[in-house]
Amino acid sequence: MLLNSLFCIHGRDTSLRFVAISASCFFVILLWMLIFGSNASVFIPAVTAGIVLLLSGYRRVRDAQKPQWWSVTLLVPWLALSVSISSDTLFSIWLSMLIFGCIATLLLAFPKSLSVGRFSSGYQGPATKMHGAQSTSTKRVEPSLNAQFDSGDSEQAPNYWPNANESTDALLDREPMQQDSMKSLFSDMIESSPINRKTLLFIVITLLSLTVLGLLGQSMWGDHELDTVSTAEQAVIPTSEPEVTVSFSDGFSMGLSDKKLSMTWLGDEGEAQTLWTLADAIGDSNCQVLRFNNGTQYRTIKVERLSDSSTKAWFTPLDTKAILKDVARRNKASLCSYTFSLKGSQADLSKEPLFRAYIE
């Protein structure tokens, strides 16, 4: 009966039952969000619970004899809450929609009941009548024992057995009647006792408060965890090592930082500019490769003229070891139409431990 009454259109709900159903609907959608997160799956409970909420509001306005369109106002904050949760909006937005939904529920529960008749668990309607019809249709019928008596007792049987049948039916029907009376008494106690109402409202408010606090804590802790992760990521980002430089007797130098090799020399005077880049292959073609006297050559990544009129070339880290070995072993190297003498270069490189590790 309880499940049927949730989807009933022609019945009536008391204010207490309406508040309980509304709170349960909001609790279900918030619990779903807490478990599965803010995504489109929230529409699964939102549609079902929204129908239950709308029908309960419709029965509430029938009970208070108010315009039926009042029940539709419940769907406005409900749909807004569902959309805001599914789109993962700010916590303050869907919390505001939740507050508006609670206000709409309380306003609709405020008018007093104008219905006449008995309510069962806060409900009055066809579902109660169907339940009563099913309980009354289960009356027990005992077989007759008239065949056990002879014809001499046939005149006394009509006078005796009707009374016996009446007492038997009364005894058999006494237990269902007592059960129905206990159910009615229990329902009346729920409806009439102010202590139980306060207790029920306290439980509903407590559940909603705990859910909201849980979502708020999850939001705050989630942001804190994200900040912690981002801070940790920033902490583990290695800082670039300072460039270690070795100067050679022919007036050029080589620098090494994070396995990236560079070569610097005093070139032509002029404005700072890019002379060559491997990315777009635009610039001075003489700066494309570093060429040694044995014919070995290595591509440059970028060559620039700096503000102090010096020229600097960068090489890929994959060629660092090979270039340094050729610098230590060869006699000459050329780059950007400049020729450099490598006499004594091995001794110069061996002075710096970082470079010495590449040529040994």
TrEMBL record:
Keyword Transmembrane included in the entry's annotation: yes
Transmembrane spans: 16-34, 40-57, 69-85, 91-110, 199-221
Keywords of this entry: Membrane, Transmembrane, Transmembrane helix
Record protein name field: DUF805 domain-containing protein
Biological classification of the source: Bacteria, Pseudomonadati, Pseudomonadota, Gammaproteobacteria, Alteromonadales
